[in-house]
């Protein structure tokens, strides 16, 4: 089988001069010119099968006026030349800075084969296949892959001369980006890699070996103390949130609110942001440490086969630094506002290797979804950067996941960005995937600008006067509104009193009408009973009269005395007269009730309230 096409190994100079391969490869030196990046050739940084040493030089044309090498003339140890991904430039534009860090062997990996080789002089990272003794037909798949980044940190062996400690990682990334922050640039550093590859350790560390986040905070306040001596006032605000199962959760909101799902919005000026996110002003590192500890305790973590404390969410720690400097000579005020965004991404994982089931499996699925979207965004941005002059730029799928939406400004926007690719020394497939993502990320161009406002004395006086006029206008409007509101309250109080009186009157008439109606019905019932009783008595008297006329009276005095006097027709007429009187009273009450209701509706319509 033919070897894969790799332009890096095969670009030959067109000139008739000496062959590039004849130039000896530098072996024991670093390179200076930190502002000068490698020339952009199509083959730069692409993985390729490992070749003879001299072919490396052939990858990079020699720049006029420089010694042969990768990016400049030899320099003293301790310096390095930023590669394609360097964000270190004067005007703020540049590529994403990409560094790679390999972690030490874990306890379960002891005795395993190290697949990673790093050259501290050329900053190359080579990954070897775990089965080098394959057949010739498989050479394409097992050949070593070589990558070039801005920095390669070898943290595999603490006894090595080139061991990269937490401090050295900060000195080469964190310190530089903190410099950019103090200049007024937005910055972002995010750790990417497989689960268990050392991302959280790199970003957060532990008590004895703090990572990038705590070291950045400590050095930030050290610099602020120095600025205070130069009459520069500084304020620092922090926030801390996580993206868990494609939902944003506030890690500083307290135990009763941190499960609240927050919404992501986008501002035309500030870009994407989290709505209602807690933000606290801090004055020293101890306060930052308190909030940092609180947030770390609230993070979603779980144990898997790959990692005993696997992060199940993407955590974003943000510091907003505001610097205000007054120059008495020019009577001008300079204000800089910069944002430091430090991101600990959850690790990519495979269910077969992590042993995740149930909730852990669902978490892993969402993590892989967001990381896959991040990979697509990186690929799209890298392609857009390569076709910067194209008339039809590609659409970047930022909104396909919450993570990429929130990192929109950091990826290809107004920010200086660095990616720390964390890799394992034993996992070939995942490490190769991470290195490929990192290789694409270094091609992304950012457009960072200094976020500052300079106001002269005259402009400041004008602005103060405008603000004072606005305050006076608002105070006048507030006073007028207060007076109107007070008058409305008084009128409303009077209306409420009248309304209450009408309601009481209506209730009184309604209750009285109900009472009279019940009384009328009772009298009607009693009158009907009396009428029936009178009818029976009349028939009974008629029958007795008929009998008396037909037969001589034989009834004894006792029998006569036993007959009870019955009501007469006059009694019935009295009841009927009383019933008519009550009916007339009920009619009068109904008329009064109708008048009261009409008056109530008139008052309600006059004051604009419901008549219910």
From TrEMBL:
Residues 83-92 have a biased composition (Low complexity). GO terms for biological process: microtubule-based movement. PROSITE patterns: KINESIN_MOTOR_1, KINESIN_MOTOR_2. GO terms for cellular component: microtubule. Residues 1-92, 119-140 are annotated as: Disordered. ATP binds at residues 193-200. Keywords: ATP-binding, Coiled coil, Microtubule, Motor protein, Nucleotide-binding. Gene3D superfamilies: Kinesin motor domain. Residues 40-50 have a biased composition (Basic and acidic residues). The keyword Nucleotide-binding applies. Residues 464-519 form a coiled coil. SMART domains: KISc. The keyword Nucleotide-binding applies. Residues 95-444 form the Kinesin motor domain. Pfam families: Kinesin (PF00225). One of its GO terms (molecular function) is microtubule motor activity. InterPro entries: Kinesin_motor_CS (IPR019821), Kinesin_motor_dom (IPR001752), Kinesin_motor_dom_sf (IPR036961), P-loop_NTPase (IPR027417). Belongs to the TRAFAC class myosin-kinesin ATPase superfamily. Kinesin family. This is Kinesin-like protein.
């Amino acid at each position: 089988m033919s070897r894969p096409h790799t332009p890096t190994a095969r670009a030959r100079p067109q000139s008739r001069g000496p062959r590039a391969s004849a130039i000896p490869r530098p072996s024991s030196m670093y390179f200076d010119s930190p502002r000068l990046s490698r020339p952009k050739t199509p083959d730069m940084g692409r993985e390729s099968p490992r070749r003879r040493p001299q072919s490396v030089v052939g990858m990079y044309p020699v720049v006029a006026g420089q010694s042969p090498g990768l990016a400049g003339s030899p320099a003293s140890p301790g310096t390095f030349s930023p590669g394609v991904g360097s964000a270190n430039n004067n005007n703020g534009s540049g590529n994403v800075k990409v560094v790679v860090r390999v972690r030490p062997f874990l306890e379960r990996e002891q005795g395993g084969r190290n697949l990673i080789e790093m050259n501290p002089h050329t900053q190359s990272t080579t990954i070897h296949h775990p089965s080098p003794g394959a057949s010739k037909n498989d050479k394409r798949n097992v050949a070593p892959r070589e990558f070039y980044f801005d920095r390669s940190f070898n943290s595999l062996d603490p006894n090595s001369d080139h061991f990269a400690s937490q401090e050295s990682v900060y000195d080469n990334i964190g310190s530089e980006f903190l410099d950019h922050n103090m200049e007024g640039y937005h910055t972002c550093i995010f750790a990417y890699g497989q689960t268990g590859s050392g991302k959280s350790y790199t970003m957060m560390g532990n008590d004895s070996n703090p990572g990038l986040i705590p070291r950045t905070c400590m050095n930030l306040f050290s610099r602020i103390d120095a600025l205070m001596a130069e009459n520069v006032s500084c304020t620092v605000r922090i926030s801390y949130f996580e993206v868990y199962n494609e939902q944003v959760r506030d890690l500083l909101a307290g135990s009763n609110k941190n499960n609240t799902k927050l919404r992501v919005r986008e501002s035309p000026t500030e870009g994407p942001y989290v709505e209602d996110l807690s933000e606290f002003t801090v004055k020293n590192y101890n306060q930052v440490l308190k909030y940092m500890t609180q947030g770390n305790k609230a993070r979603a973590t779980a144990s898997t086969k790959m990692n005993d404390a696997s992060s199940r969410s993407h955590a974003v720690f943000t510091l907003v630094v505001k610097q205000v400097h007054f120059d008495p000579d020019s009577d001008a005020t300079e204000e800089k506002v910069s944002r430091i965004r430090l991101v600990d991404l959850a690790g990519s994982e495979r269910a077969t290797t992590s042993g995740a089931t149930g909730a852990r499996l669902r978490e892993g699925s969402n993590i892989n979804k967001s990381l896959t979207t991040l990979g697509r965004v990186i690929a799209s941005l890298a392609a857009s950067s390569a076709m910067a002059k194209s008339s039809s730029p590609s659409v970047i799928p930022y909104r396909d996941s919450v993570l990429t939406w929130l990192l929109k400004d950091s990826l290809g926007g107004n920010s200086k960005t660095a990616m720390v690719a964390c890799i394992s020394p034993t996992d070939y497939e995942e490490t190769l995937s991470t290195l490929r993502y990192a290789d694409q990320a270094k091609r992304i161009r950012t457009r960072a600008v200094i976020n500052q406002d300079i106001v002269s004395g005259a402009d400041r006086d004008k602005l103060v006067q405008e603000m004072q006029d606005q305050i006076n206008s608002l105070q006048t409007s507030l006073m007028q509104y207060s007076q109107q509101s007070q008058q409305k309250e008084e009128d409303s109080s009077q209306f409420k009193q009248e309304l209450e009186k009408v309601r009481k009157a209506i209730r009184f008439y309604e209750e009285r009408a109900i009472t009279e109606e019940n009384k009328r019905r009772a009298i009607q019932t009693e009158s009907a009973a009396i009428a029936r009783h009178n009818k029976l008595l009349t028939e009974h008297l008629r029958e007795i009269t008929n009998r008396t006329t037909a037969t001589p009276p034989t009834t004894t005095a006792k029998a006569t005395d036993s007959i009870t006097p019955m009501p007469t027709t006059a009694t019935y007429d009295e009841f009927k007269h009383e019933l008519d009187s009550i009916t007339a009273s009920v009619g009068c009450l109904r008329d009064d009730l109708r008048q009261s209701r009409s008056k109530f509706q008139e008052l309600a319509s006059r004051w604009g309230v419901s008549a219910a």
